[in-house]
Amino acid sequence: MALPKTDSFTVTVDTDIQDYDANWIRAGGSGWRVYEATDTLACVASGSSPWIPNLHWEGDTFDANQYAQAKIAALDTGASYVGVSVRCASGTTNTHYGWFGANTEHSLCKMISGSVTWLGDDTTDGYAGELIRQEVS
To answer: Which residues contact 137 (CB under 8 A, 6 or more apart)?
Structure first.
């Protein structure tokens, strides 16, 4: 597939992400589903802290200089986090740089084999409806 990779996550019935497209690889977290009613993607399983689910695309080979972006459809009132990640390791090893946020907290982290290092955070308001983007070079 030609880069950049885009996806509308459109389905006619609720679908597990790997049934939707096997090039989407789970690396941390389970229960990733594409929802028919809203054409959205969500990780519906929970885990123990520091648990940062990561889903990444393995249908292409990426250069070291890369970006990831997503439009955030909505945020719930709980502790659900959404975000984007870059330089994801191939396979199911949870290794990446990620930018994640919830209603009032946003953090930049480095995850190496499931061990997280927090690189920075802020407490701005949530960003439902906004486009978020992370770049690395």
So the answer is: 64, 65
Q: What span, in angstroms and rounded, lies between the C-alpha atoms of 99 and 110?
A: 9
Contact (CB, 8 A) for 107 and 118: yes
- What pTM value is reported for the model? 0.75
What is the separation of C-alpha 75 from the centre of its chain, rounded to a whole number of angstroms? 14
Determine the number of helices (DSSP H) and then strands (DSSP E) in the chain. 1, 11
Which two structure tokens, joined as six digits, stand for 3? Answer: 């880069």
- C-alpha span between 70 and 9 (Å, rounded): 12
Query: Please, which pLDDT band fits residue 20 given cuts at 50, 70 and 90?
Result: very high
